[in-house]
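Weekly modeling sync, notes
Attendees: S.R. (lead), two postdocs, one rotation student

Agenda item 3: backlog of single-chain predictions. S.R. asked that every request posted to the team notebook include the full sequence so nobody has to chase files. The rotation student volunteered to paste the first one in as an example of the format we agreed on. Action items at the bottom.

Example entry:
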Amino acid sequence: MRKPEKISSHYVLEVNDLYKDYRAPRETLKILRGISLKVAPSEMVMIIGRSGSGKSTLLHLLGGLDKPTSGKIYFEGTDLSRLNDGKLSGYRSKDVGFVFQFYYLLPELTLLENVLLPHVIAGGQARKKEAKQLLDRVGLSHRQDHHPTQLSGGEQQRAAIARALMNGPKIVLCDEPTGNLDEETANSVFDLLLKLNREEKTTFVMVTHELSLVKRAESVYELHEGVLRRSSQN
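Predicted structure, as returned to the notebook:
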């Protein structure tokens, strides 16, 4: 079995010359074209771009949900492409948290049970105390016994954020986390992400097409036609 290739790195994630193509019946779709990116511990990185620009594709690659056509992604210096299936699964379940546009809460479970789910799936014993603390951090301790259908969209997204933090990930990847929410609720959810970043030192990479949030972020990149560059919009 090949040993994971490792480099000396001070970054949580380091992306070098990343390409992603998809084969279509009549052509090859070039989605990402030579992307490089470094994400430091405790940093919040925001990636903006139009729908279809490849933002979600990039996030899936960073989270180990897909593989690049070429290029390297290093997590704390370890090359993800050299991990076997078991170690890559461990990376996805323990080192990375995911927050999506759609909340993906299981309707038959209570809020507390939904937050506990990633830890149980990873093979751990249910840690109710930690899950309750997470719900308290996102302002939902009073809703722990409710089911998702009893919550507003903003509350469901807050619960999804708590779930993403359950396994103590090194980085949280957010795919359009405010895209399903009205402006006021979107700002409230983004406030929570900023608070977790600044007070808890949680590292985030967030992709969005909502330019109204850009002025409140520090590290902003724009993805355009598969090319990533620093944005001047904030």
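Discussion: group reviewed the output briefly. Residues 129 and 193 are 22 Å apart (CA to CA).
Action items: rotation student to repeat for the remaining queue; S.R. to check formatting next week.
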